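Put briefly, the fold is written as integer tokens. The lines below illustrate.
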Amino acid sequence: MDAGLAGILGTLLGFVTSSVKDAIGKFSKGKKFEIALQEEVNRAIRILDEKMSWLERPLPADIAEKFSDRVVVVDGKKMYLGEKETFHVPMRFWSKNYAEIVFIISAKAFRKFSSLYDCLQRFEAKFADMKYSFECTDGDSKVMAAACYSDLKGIQKEIEELRQI
């Protein structure tokens, strides 16, 4: 009987030890993923902030004159919103590891990062809309570009609020 009890206790102890080891490993990996996601988001936000600073830069008079059809006045400030350019922030870690991220990080962290990535993707799309407004012939391109710029500022503010969570 003692050998049977020892066998059962040994099996149970082995199971518990294995389960604890797996839980610690998952927790550790989840924390590493959160750190990697945070670094990717921080880099993306730096790039986004640099782009907004570029859009808000002082506009030289010669540019304002040469490209007057692409210069928009926003809040009393002339801005060259029609410059032909694209904007994309690669988010490789999120894209490559999405399926695993869903299962390995906490639900709270996932909601935060998911919301941040959604904002970053909306920023890219709205930026493209702003640039496209100067290429299409429907409507007033300057009014559309100004509206898109306003949306970009709103998304930037939303990102800052999410970072505080």
Q: What stands out?
A: The longest strand covers residues 71-74. Helices lie at 2-55, 61-66, 92-104, 107-132, 141-163. The chain has one domain: 2-163. The radius of gyration is 25 Å.
